[in-house]
Prior knowledge:
The complex is a heterodimer of chains A (301) and B (320). Chain A is mainly alpha-helical. In chain A, helix 2 crosses helix 14 and helix 5 packs parallel to helix 9 (172-185). The relative contact order of chain A is 0.14. Helix content of chain A is 75%, strand content 0%. The longest helix of chain B is centred in the N-terminal third of the chain and has 36 residues, at 87-122. In chain B, helix 1 (2-29) runs antiparallel to helix 13 and helix 4 (87-122) crosses helix 11 (249-266). Chain B has helices spanning 2-29, 45-54, 61-73, 87-122, 127-141, 144-158, 177-198, 200-214, 217-224, 229-247, 249-266, 272-281, 285-313, 316-319; strands at residues 79-80, 85-86. Chain B has one domain: Orthogonal Bundle (MetI-like fold), CATH 1.10.3720. The relative contact order of chain B is 0.14. Chain B contains 14 helices and two strands. Chain B is mainly alpha-helical and 320 residues long. Chain B starts with a helix and ends with a helix. The radius of gyration of chain B is 25 Å and the shape is globular. Chain A binds chain B through residues 133, 136-137, 140-146, 148-150, 152-153, 155, 226, 230, 233-234, 237-240, 253, 256-257, 259, 262-263, 269, 273, 276-277, 280-281, 284, and chain B through 11, 14-15, 18-19, 22, 26, 29-31, 138, 140-146, 149-150, 152-153, 157, 164-165, 254, 257-258, 261-262, 265-266, 276-277, 280-281, 285, 288-289, 291-292, 295-296, 298-300, 303.
Amino acid sequence: MGAKSVNVEVKSNVVKSPSGISVIWREIVKDKIALISLIFLVLVTAFVYGVSLVLDQKEIVKVDLFSIYEPPNDEFILGTDYGGRDVFGQLIIGTRNSLSIAILVTVMTGVIGIVYGLVSGYFGGHIDNIMMRILDFFMILPFTMIVIAFVAIIPKYSVWTFSLIMTAFLWMGLARLVRSRTLAEKELDYIQAAKTLGTSNIKIIFKHVLPNVSSLIIVSMTLSLAGNIGLESGLSFLGFGFPENTPSLGTLLSYARNPQVLEHRWWIWVPASVMILLLMLCVNNVGTALRRATDARQRRG
Amino acid sequence: MWKFSLRRILIMIPQLFFLSLLIFVLAKMMPGDALSGQIDPNIDPARIEELRIQMGWYDPWHQQYAAWVGNLLQGDLGDSFRFKMPVTELIGQRIANSFWLSVATLIFTYLIAIPLGITSGRFNDTWKDQLITGYSYLGFATPLFIFALVMLWLFGFQLQWFPSSGSIEPGLEPGTFEYFMSKFYHLLLPALSMALITTFSTIQYLRNDIVDTKQKEFILTARAKGASESRVYNKHILRNSLLPIAAFLGFEITGLIGGSIFIETIFSYPGMGQLLIESISLRDYSVVTATTLLFGMASILGALLSDIILSIIDPRIRIK
């Protein structure tokens, strides 16, 4: 009985090292730009998803021939496009769709990249060699062209197939990063100890190695989220992203391929460009703050 | 060096093989076949079947693949169903435009990156450096196509300093000085737009490299010998920091390929990227296959070029 209470006392005396989340939080609060970016992102996401619950997408994309190309006025805050559709409504729906697909693609590439990198790095040798040659091949392919070619030939084209195609040619960066860290990690003593104890490989990979490379994964996935927003809107801009009835930010920009729109009807393409720019900048700012948080030497907080 | 280059070229062979396989699968998945659009719809379906068998439509896939690669090696990429001419000829017209656009972009990229990178690295943590870092921070977050749209809107339409579309003034005779100048004039805005936005990675790389090199011991030695500040920077540091930039050349080519598709669409510049987009919307699939294949091959060659330049610069890589 007495021994037990002593034990409890000792435990409470140990200085707790700051948890990962509190380190990240301190870093973001210290970096004012990152804090503002995070608040902006949360607000935009909440607003966009909240409003689109009320807003009817079918109503927004319905063509209304009596109000084509109206400049911003009381009825349409940001005017209308060539089909008489409300630009502001499309902007909200578009931001939601762009964000959703960027998150979806980031998560899917994340899962593939992490597993691929862990397996390749942990087993090493011939497996690593073969897997890296495959990765090199994917790395070399010109992303935009291949995605466009695939999008063009898929018969039943939907948002899901689009995100799958994007995922298929985007997982390599994270996989390579995770692999190089795993290679270094598996030489450490605790992994050797776990092996000696007879822990199965799968358990070592996911219970021991994965938590130790997780900070790297979080940072890299945040930064690639910004990239994916840009890639999606770029592909939609060219007309190879979302189907026509699902507007994205890139769809709004693609109207500017018509010189008339670009020159005289700024309200169609400027808001969407500003939105993409702000989203990418903010995600980037948060990502750089996260990167500093994972590296003790660069921390500000 | 020769040994490394040879080994690197050997690695390229399976890459080319898999690329051709991927494109072949793409080509097979595309709707329609070589006959669609070429024959009269009134012809008896049995005759069409016969033709298909004759053309090897029902052969096992490896035979079809072999035949396809065989044609490819002879420079036969099929016929464009839209333009009614061999794809090789069609691409030949466009590829020169794309080539010159890429060359101009590369020149601009380095013209911007080298002075800015040197300034930023030499005077690091001053207002000049912060200005340049701010520029590359914005450049990192701005998608190329938005920037190009803004450039076109500002310089093409509002100020009207540059032509807003095409690659040449109509009615000029090839070979004359005016023809050349008009080409160059049409090239300027697209190339500048792409260079201004892609240059930031080179600037950042050069800056960080100079900041690193500045603290090395041989620089201390040079200073101790009494070398003037400009001599230290221009002779000792620059020589070490410029080399890795040269190795980026190959990667730049890969980036240019991806970027050209946006730039050419926005500026209606008749190059390969625009051809790809056009032929997809016209459902001209033999052209799509051929352009994708060429772009893929260009990327593979770009990576090869980078690795070989790197191995010349940095002998440690060769040991692998």
